[in-house]
Write a structure and sequence with these properties.
alpha+beta; three-stranded antiparallel sheet; globular
Amino acid sequence: MIYTQYFLEASIHRYIMKPLFKINVVSNSSFTVKNTIGQSFDGLWHYHNEYELSYIHEGRGEKIVGDHISSLNKGELLFLGSDLPHRFSCDQNFPLKDRAGSLTVHINSEFINERFFTYPELASISQLFNKARSGVQFNGKTQGIASRIQNLFELDEAESILEIVSMFQVLSKNFKSKILASPGYTSNFDKSSYQRINKVCKYVMDNFKSDICLEDAANIVGLTNAAFCRHFKKVTGKTFFSYIKEYRVGNACKLLMENNLNVSEISYECGFNTISNFNKQFREITGNSPSVYRDRFINFH
C-alpha cells in the first residue's frame, strides 16, 4: 500500500500555527499501514480525515492531541479521531533517536462510518470510535497490539480489514483508556446514545461566551434542576458546571494555539468575567497559566 500525503496550506500568525492537513489514505482504499521506526517523528502539527491508531515503538518527547499536552514515551498506544489536530516530537538529545518512530494504522473515515456501527455486536467498538474524537490513550500491555499492527504488512487487504476490526474489539473490551483532549476542544458524545445531553451540549456551545443558566439547560431536556444535574453526571461522568468550565478552557486552549489574541482578550472571548478567574480555572484544568501554556506550545514547534 502506498502512503501519500499532501500539505494544503498553513496559516502562520507570528509563531501561532494552524494545523496542516494531511492525506494518509487514498480515496479507493480503506486503510494504510505505516512503519516509521528509525525515522523519529516529523514534529508536524497537523490533522487528517482518517482515524489513527499509533504505537510508539521508541521515543521520548512530547505530544499534543487537541488541547492536551503531555510527554511521549515508548510503548504508548494512541487512538485519534478524524480531524483531531495532533503532533508528536522527539527530544533532540534522546540517545535512541535513530530507533524512534511508530507503527501506525490510518483508517478511511468513509469506511468506518455510522452505518458500519449499526449492528449491536459492534457497540463497544462504536463507543471507542466516539471517544477517539477527543483522542484516547490505552493503558496495559500494548506490545501485543503492536505485533498485530506489524503483522498487517504480511496480510492481504481483506484479511487486514478483519484483523483491524478484531484489534478494535480487543481494545474496546480488554483495555482501560483515558481521554486526552477536553470537551471544549472537541466533543466526545455519541449522537445516537446521548441525544438529550447533546441538546444541552449544543446550548453550551452556542452560549459559552456569556452566562449559562442551569434552569435553561434543565428546561431543554424537560427536567427539574436537581434531576438534570443527576442525569448529566450519570451520562457524562462530570457535573454540568465542570463541563462548562472544561468547555471554556478547551476553547481558550484552541485560541492560545492558533490565534494572536492576548490572554485578556481570550479570557472574555471564552466567557470568563475576570482575568483572575480565567487564570485560576485554566490552571486547575491544564496545570499551567495561559501564558505558560501558549509558550510551551510555541516552543514545542
